[in-house]
C-alpha cells in the first residue's frame, strides 16, 4: 500500500509542477493570444510565486489539527477548478485570477503530501520518498513542459490547462481510495502557536537556503526559452527537445538530492552552491558557443533541486524534535521560501532582461548562489556548535 500511496503523492507533485512550470514554455503563445509583451507574461511567474509564498503558510496553519485526508481533497478540488478557470480565461486579468487561485492552494498540497510521508513511511524510507515527491516537479519539467509546449505551439495553450484539470480530478479520486482517513498533526491550542518554530535560529537560517537557491536559478530559468532561441540560435523544433533534456537533468538532480539527504545532508550543499555560482557567472559568454552554453545550462539543471530533500528533511527533523504542533507548516517551508526566491529571481531576471538582454542574467543569478553558499556554511557551523553544546551538557 505504501508504494501506491507514494505514487499518488508523486503524481500530485507532478501535476503541481506541470501547472507551475508550463508558463515558461508557453510565454510567447500567451503573449500572442492576448497581444501583450513576453516580459508582461513573464510577470505571471513572479505573481504566482509571490502569492504561493504568502498564502502557503496561512493555508498550512489553517489545516491545524484537521484531518489531512479532507484537507488534501478540498485543496485538490480547488486546484482543478483554478486551472480550468485559467484555460477559459478570455482576458489577461482572468488569467491572473486563475493563476492566483492555483498558487493559493499549491504550496499547502505539497506540505500535506510531505506530512503524509512523515506518518506513513518508516524513518529509513522517508528521505527517498520525499525525494520522489520533489522529483514529481522535475518529471513535470521532463515530460509536462516539453509536451505542453508542443501542444501549445500546434493547437492552443488552453488545452494544456484543461489536461491539468483532468489529471487533478483523476489524482483526487485515487487519493480518496488510498490515503488514510484519520491522520492529523498534534493538536494545536492556538493558531499562532505554530509560528513559534520561526524563533529557532537554525530555522531562521535554513529557510534562506531555498529562497537564495531558487532566486539564483530563476534569474536565468524564467528566460530559458530566449536563452535557447536568441542566445544559442535554436529553432522552435529544437526547443521541445532541449526543454525535455533540461527537465531530465533537473530530475537527476532531484533524485540525487535524496541520496544527499540520507548521507551528509546540508553539509554537502556549500560545494553545490559554489559550483552553481561558477556556472551562472560563466553563462553570459558561454551561450555564444552552443556546446559550452548547453553544458552550462544542463549542469545548472542538475543543481536546480539538489537542495530539496536535504532542506525538507532538516525542517522535519527540527519540527519533530522541538515543534510537533508545526509539522505541516514545517513541511511547507521548502515550497514557501523557494517561491519567495522564484518571485525575487524572476522579477530581477525580468528587469535584467529588459535592461541588458541576456548578458546580465547569469551574473545576476550568481550573486544569489554566492549568498546561499555563505548562509549554508553559517548554518552548518551553528548546527555543529549546538550539537557540541548539547553533547557537553548531556
From TrEMBL:
Domain Major facilitator superfamily (MFS) profile: 5-384
Primary residence: membrane
Alphabetized Pfam families for the sequence: MFS_1
Spans traversing the lipid bilayer: 7-28, 34-55, 67-86, 92-117, 129-151, 157-183, 203-224, 236-256, 268-287, 293-316, 328-354, 360-379
UniProt KW keywords: Cell membrane, Membrane, Transmembrane, Transmembrane helix, Transport
Membrane topology note: Multi-pass membrane protein
GO CC annotations, alphabetized: plasma membrane
Keyword Membrane assigned: yes
Top-level taxon of the source organism: Bacteria
Gene Ontology molecular-function annotations: transmembrane transporter activity
Compartments, as annotated in UniProt: Cell membrane
Protein name: Mfs family major facilitator transporter
Organism of origin: Liquorilactobacillus vini DSM 20605
